[in-house]
Amino acid sequence: AQAISRIKAKANKRSKLQRGEISSLQALVGLMWRTITWARKLQGDQITACKVAAGLQKRLDPTLPWEYFGSCMLFLSTEAKVGDLLGQDLGWAARALHETVLRETANMGWQWLMNIQLYDVNGFESNDVMVASSPWLEMYGSDFGWGKGLAVLSGSANKFDGRISGMDLEVCLLPHVMAALELDEELLDALLPSY
């Protein structure tokens, strides 16, 4: 919690936002997008995207009926050239994510919902980072009869290079990318204040 608070404060200080505030999730995702992109050693002119799953049930106007059972979500995609993402700071990345959320979730009504397309997993590029799961979901308080959870992990079908789950951060990367990420000074500085 302390590390996330520091990351959020740093992102908000550097973001130069005109309205609103960078959320904890946007700050943490911005940090991970930057550090994973750095660890991949991509060329500056390549395009990278950060795709964040956004729940739509509370954003639609009018909202879905309470009887609705299922998932209603959309991946919000923020794109940047690698050189731009790494040439700027955390505030720039978090602001780009924040602006995507504002732009893509404004005026979400039923007409808007009728025009969306099904998500195609093949649309995920190897330069991308995908974030799924929600910090608002009560992961550890639920007990389905066999006790409370000790850890939240995704199954093997949801493990692919560049996927991040939840605020506990299950980060799936290729071994050489993970090894480089473990040496990233920006990430270590954010997570370990005495580093």
From TrEMBL:
Residue ranges annotated as transmembrane are none
Domain of life assignment: Eukaryota
User: InterPro entries from the entry?
Assistant: CAT-like_dom_sf, Sec_Metabolite_Acyltrans
Recorded protein name is Acetyltransferase
The protein's UniProt keywords, in alphabetical order, are: Transferase
Question: Quick check: keyword Nucleotide-binding in the entry?
Answer: no
Q: What molecular function terms (GO) are annotated for this protein? A: transferase activity
Protein species of origin: Nymphaea colorata
Upper classification of the organism: Eukaryota, Viridiplantae, Streptophyta, Embryophyta, Tracheophyta
Keyword flag Mitochondrion: no
